[in-house]
Amino acid sequence: MEKYVPDIYQKSIYTVDYSKLYSNGIRCLLFDLDNTVVASKESNPPEKAKDLFISLKQKGFKVIILSNSPKSRVRKFADFFEVPCYHFALKPLSFKFKKVLSDNHFLPRETAIIGDQIMTDVLGGNKMDITTILVNPVSESDVVFTKFNRFFEKRKLKQLEERELFSRGNYYD
Ligand SMILES: [Mg+2]
Q1: Ligand 1 centroid vs 115 CA: distance in angstroms?
Q2: How does the average pLDDT of the chain come out, rounded?
Q3: Residue pair 97/115 in contact by the 8 Å Cβ criterion
Q4: 15 alpha carbon – ligand 1 mean position (Å)
Q5: Quick one: residue 90, left, alpha or beta (phi over 0 = left, psi -120 to 50 = alpha)?
Q6: Which of 65, 121, 127, 137 is the most exposed place for a label (fewest CB within 10 A)?
Q7: Average pLDDT, integer, range 3-25
Q8: What is the second-level CATH architecture of the domain 2-162?
Q9: 154: CA distance to ligand 1 center in Å?
């Protein structure tokens, strides 16, 4: 059950304490794209996110987009943000996580994933033993495949809440 619980839970990518992550030895930040950085149906990249990524890179982090979405969408945003990206990641499977870490020479203990979904980002990250950071989704609307995941996420969240392991809106880091 704990593999569904994030290490950190914050309202958005803008409220995460990145300095604390750095002090704890995190050097590589994997960002989910849809509903984490941009609304899943948004086609224009937000300037605010680019500014965040610039400041994170200046702090000494490697910033990488790790998304389950197709190449055409992921590449467009990543190019604007000027960060490397991996598309069609099939999170929660470990395959792409492992590739990202080995390509970029990071250990799991130096890496964190920031995402909006328990069933993909948090589960996938916990399986890899990297730091998992859940944020609230940017928008209410999801792509079809995510709608399916949200159904299971809802059930899982209910179980976690009953066991007092996690509850929506109670942020922690
Ligand atoms: Mg997402």
Answers
A1: 6
A2: 95
A3: no
A4: 17
A5: left
A6: 127
A7: 98
A8: 3-Layer(aba) Sandwich (3.40)
A9: 15
